[in-house]
Design goal:
Helices cover about 45% and strands about 15% of the residues. It has about 550 residues and is an alpha/beta fold. Helix 1 (about 1-20) crosses helix 2 (about 35-40), helix 20 (about 405-420) crosses helix 21 (about 425-430) and helix 20 (about 405-420) packs across helix 25.
Length: about 550
């Protein structure tokens, strides 16, 4: 044993000595035996510390950076899921400088390309972005020229995949042993943005285009379904993940109302108004409020957006302002996906939107927003990890909880009897009426109509449907469909309500279904079909 340890110590001393003698320049050279041995023996060796200090002005690596960089040097794929500001970019920047091989970074927005290019240039690291916004006519020559010294190149997926000549140029770099890594920044967009950035989906082809080149996918948050899809086109990736929980961010959602003025004048405040890409490129540490107009397309997208707040660790807030019409968005997305013949994507979109709606309407079910958020990402929130300022639901006393089993039974019965009809028709049915389409159903099943209650308002049933969806008793499914005549057909989709297993099981259970009372017109009439449980709760 002593002989073995002595041999290892001598090997490390030899590597240390060689590292001190090594000089770093901008020429392109292959990794030699020293690089491989150094990576195997210790990541924070003298050579790496030298590069880290000289080029990046840092004294040490974070633990996840060590693991990921080592994986790149071993030509292994990697998936990096870390918070904004944690140092993910160093994972692909460092290997480019250290190995003198080019890193190609696929980036979603021009602003990100420009910002990251300028950031590297300020560190005296050669970087270029390519695409329509590049005004330098010699930019491509800097990358693909014989005497190129560029370390990192940023491109959009459209630049790489839409023009065959472009990825052929990159393939030539690989053939000449000059391409060391391909990184996909904001990797969740490979699937989140596939509806209007179809080139992103072609990232699945990267290993076929660039054999033997390691892939790296980076993101702030990735839901389990998207993580599985990313892993499917990567080769045994090393995964370095972290919790999506941001304890310093207060989460809330409020119904949109018409703005009013109280006649008072306030001071000035800096405001950034941004599109959906806001969750990607705001590089400020002191953002205090994130305010989103409308239900987000997915909870993953919302996590990306509110993750821009409080990067300095100070208390910050994230609000969603919504109204009931936001639910129409899922129909628009599903219709587009159905037209593109992507039924599996319809299911994904519906699932993500259901969770986003549940998050927005969580107050109706008395469910902690943070707990709901973490459950989607496969995490649990214990009492120990609850922050002092958690969410708007945890701040308030929920009040009287009412047994809603009778109403849920009526709702699920209506869903089953009306089959493919949508939410509006189900609400009309539960309200009672005498319209033609109802009469046709009653003729087929005379007992059905008499089972429906009367008196509860249309608004009450709409809110109750949201409440049941937020509590997980029903969901909104998106079904592809063909519309039109025999001569002219249109591919589309429609939304329908479906009971969940949780909902059906709750009806057969002996336990009450306790939900907060709904503050909507005509709720006072609910006592004809419900019993009130004098139960108070501050957190579900």
């Amino acid at each position: 044993m002593e002989d073995e340890l002595d041999g290892q110590n001598k090997q490390i001393e030899r590597l240390d000595k060689k590292a001190q003698e090594r000089t770093f320049n901008n020429s392109c050279s292959d990794m030699d035996e020293f690089d491989v041995l150094l990576s195997s023996y210790y990541l924070d060796g003298a050579a790496k510390r030298c590069v880290l200090a000289e080029y990046f002005h840092l004294t040490h690596f974070k633990e996840f950076q060590c693991h990921i960089i080592d994986a790149v040097l071993e030509k292994r794929d990697s998936l990096v899921i870390q918070p904004t500001g944690s140092g993910k970019s160093l994972c692909y920047q460092f290997p480019a400088v250290y190995t003198k091989r080019l890193t190609l970074v696929i980036t979603p927005t021009i602003s990100l390309m420009q910002d990251q290019t300028h950031e590297l240039e300020n560190l005296d690291i050669s970087a270029v972005y390519l695409g329509s916004a590049q005004a330098d006519p010699n930019a491509e020559k800097k990358v693909f020229g014989a005497d190129s010294s560029v370390a990192v190149v940023f491109v959009s997926p459209e630049w790489l995949f839409s023009d065959k000549d472009n990825h052929v140029k990159v393939q030539e770099l690989n053939a000449n042993n000059q391409l060391g890594l391909v990184a996909i920044d904001e990797a969740h967009l490979v699937y989140d943005w596939q509806d209007f950035r179809q080139s992103y989906r072609k990232c699945e082809e990267l290993h076929a285009l660039f054999p033997n080149v390691p892939l790296m996918a980076l993101s702030v948050t990735v839901v389990p379904q998207v993580e599985a899809k990313l892993r499917s086109f990567m080769h045994d990736p090393l995964i370095e993940g972290s919790s999506v929980n941001r304890a310093n961010i207060y989460l809330a959602a409020k119904r949109r109302e018409k703005p009013t003025s109280n006649g008072k004048e306030g001071g000035e405040i800096q405001v950034i108004v941004a599109t959906r890409a806001f969750g990607l490129g705001i590089n400020k540490s002191n953002v205090r409020f994130i305010i989103r107009n409308g239900v987000p397309p997915s909870i993953s997208a919302w996590a990306q957006e509110f993750g821009r707040a409080g990067r300095d660790g100070k208390q910050s807030c994230a609000y969603i302002f919504y109204n009931d019409n936001d639910i129409q968005h899922v129909g628009f997305w599903a219709r587009d996906m159905a037209r593109q013949h992507r039924p599996s994507d319809i299911d994904d979109a519906a699932q993500q939107f259901n969770v986003a709606l549940s998050f927005s309407y969580a107050h109706l079910a008395g469910v902690c927003r943070r707990k709901l958020l973490l459950q989607l990402f496969g995490e649990e929130l214990s009492d120990i990890t609850y922050p002092k300022q958690c969410c708007d639901i945890c701040d308030q006393t929920i009040g009287l909880l009412t047994d809603r089993k009778p109403e849920l039974a009526l709702l699920i019965q209506a869903i089953d009897e009306l089959k493919s009809l949508g939410e509006t028709k189900i609400t009309e049915w539960l309200r009672g009426g005498n319209v033609a389409w109802m009469q046709n159903i009653v003729k087929a099943n005379p007992s059905a109509y008499r089972k429906s209650p009367h008196g509860l308002s249309k608004e009450w049933w709409r809110c109750f449907i949201h409440q049941c969806a937020a509590a997980g008793y029903i969901l909104r499914a998106i079904k592809p469909a063909t519309f039109g005549s025999a001569a002219t057909t249109i591919q589309g989709a429609y939304a329908k309500l479906e009971p969940t297993c949780k909902g059906r099981d709750a009806l057969t259970s002996q336990e009450a279904i306790l939900l907060p009372q709904l503050n909507v017109p005509n709720e006072k009439l609910q006592t004809s079909v419900s019993k009130t449980a004098a139960t108070q709760s501050t957190r579900t």
